[in-house]
Each structure stands twice: as structure tokens, then as C-alpha cells.
Write a structure and sequence with these properties.
about 240 residues, mainly alpha, Endonuclease III, domain 1, 3 domains, about 55% helix, about 5% strand, binds iron/sulfur cluster
């Protein structure tokens, strides 16, 4: 799999995507926690509430009461749990680094990942999103779209351990935060616009060139006709 070719084809297709949708590294960190198991469209109003109240700064946000925080982030869903995770991250950020995100995320990537993973509610995808988009570390973020897209092309099984996939992608790409940043954003776009869980739009998709066969191939229990980009039936059962 030539990941750079995939990246360049998606660049031609989408143009530069300029992720992450946040105005500061701190906002990226907050967004990374709030977007867990939640569509970004639900995170935006929560971030907007924090912005309106002038709370997109670590020490100011840490100073608000638990109940006020819960109210402000409510649109993002599972708000009590997320408030707890946010407060734990803020405690770490403020007590250890005086609220300075740049200082908190500076240093060796593996050490910083381990530090983030030690915080409650920060899993590997969230930690890597923070490392890449807030800290500028050259890491590949593995998400459900990555698993779905690449397993549909037989390039992943889809159930591999997170770090095995991350390392495999990182080995095939330059150690460049801008490239990894853009590629993750491109994969998310493909997943949202084309590679839907049901009825993938293969006929219009910029990654259709990855299909090995000229007309059709099986994935899962279904047969996809690449010329029409539609699921044609449950013929493999
Ligand atoms: S070509 Fe089809 S299976 Fe492949 S990424 Fe696009 S929509 Fe998904």
C-alpha cells in the first residue's frame, strides 16, 4: 500500500483540509476530549459555550465549578463523564505545566503519549489526536474510519491492535506532522462522504483505485460493484 500516493490523490480530490477545527492548541485538547463517541456537530456548540464565556484557557476553565462546566459542555453528550475527564486533564496541565499547553506537549513523543494515557478518559486515539493536532508530533491517528476503509480494501483486517496499525502507517509515511495531519483529515472525509457503513459510494470515491479487481470484489458478506459504487446483494452467503 503506497500511503503517500493515497495522501496525494486525496489532496487532489479534497484540496488542503487545514485541520484541526480549533483556534488554539488548548481548544484542540478540549475538543479531543469532548468529541469522544460524539459527532463533531455536537461538540461545536459546547466549544462555542466555552468561547462565549471566555473559558478556552486552562486556568480559567479549571476555576469553574463542576456544575457550571457540566452545563456548558452539555451539548457534547455524556457531559458528566466528560466534565470529569476535562477536569483531570486541566489538573495535569495546570499543576504540572502552569497551564502552558506548549510546554506540556513538548518533548519526546512516546514519553508525552505515556503521560497523556495516564490521564483518566484519554485513550490512544484521543492522546494521538492531541499529540498531532495540539502538539505537532508526527503521529498517525487511527480511528474507526481508518479501520473501515482499509479493511474494505483488504489492507487491514480491521480488528488489529491500535498501535500495530499506527506503527504500520507511520512506517509507510514521512515523519511529518503536516502530512500526518492532512492524511487523517482526508481519511475522515472519505469515511464521512463515501465510505459509509452501509451503501458506500465507491463509484464516486477517490480511493476506488485501491480495488484490485477490475469490476467487483467482496468485502464482509457483501459484493460491491465498483463500476456503480453500490452494494449489489448479499451474494456471498
Ligand atoms: S472505494 Fe468504496 S470501499 Fe473504498 S474507501 Fe471508497 S467508498 Fe470505501
Amino acid at each position: 500500500m503506497d500511503l503517500l500516493e493515497i495522501h496525494h490523490r486525496l489532496l487532489d480530490h479534497f484540496g488542503p483540509l487545514g485541520w484541526w477545527p480549533g483556534e488554539s492548541p488548548f481548544e484542540v485538547m478540549v475538543g479531543a476530549v469532548l468529541t469522544q463517541n460524539t459527532a463533531w456537530s455536537r461538540v461545536e456548540p459546547a466549544i462555542e459555550n466555552l468561547r462565549r464565556e471566555g473559558l478556552l484557557e486552562a486556568r480559567r476553565l479549571r476555576a469553574v465549578s463542576r456544575e457550571r462546566l457540566v452545563k456548558l459542555i452539555r451539548p457534547a453528550g455524556t457531559y458528566r463523564v466528560k466534565a470529569r475527564y476535562l477536569r483531570a486533564m486541566l489538573d495535569w496541565l495546570v499543576e504540572r505545566y502552569g497551564g502552558d499547553v506548549e510546554r506540556a506537549l513538548a518533548g519526546e513523543t512516546a514519553a508525552k503519549r505515556a503521560e497523556l494515557l495516564s490521564l483518566p478518559g484519554i485513550g490512544r486515539e484521543t492522546a494521538d489526536s492531541i499529540l498531532l493536532y495540539a502538539g505537532g508530533h508526527p503521529v498517525f491517528v487511527v480511528d474507526a474510519y481508518t479501520r473501515r476503509i482499509f479493511s474494505r480494501h483488504g489492507l487491514l483486517r480491521g480488528d488489529e491492535d491500535y498501535d500495530r496499525i499506527r506503527e504500520r502507517f507511520e512506517a509507510g509515511l514521512p515523519r511529518s506532522a503536516p502530512v500526518l495531519n492532512e492524511l487523517h483529515a482526508q481519511i475522515v472525509n472519505v469515511g464521512k462522504e463515501y465510505c459509509r457503513p452501509r451503501k458506500p459510494r465507491c463509484g464516486d470515491c477517490p480511493l476506488a483505485f485501491l480495488f484490485p479487481a477490475p469490476s467487483a470484489l467482496h468485502f464482509g458478506s457483501r459484493l460491491v460493484d465498483r463500476t456503480r459504487g453500490s452494494v449489489t446483494g448479499d451474494q456471498s452467503r
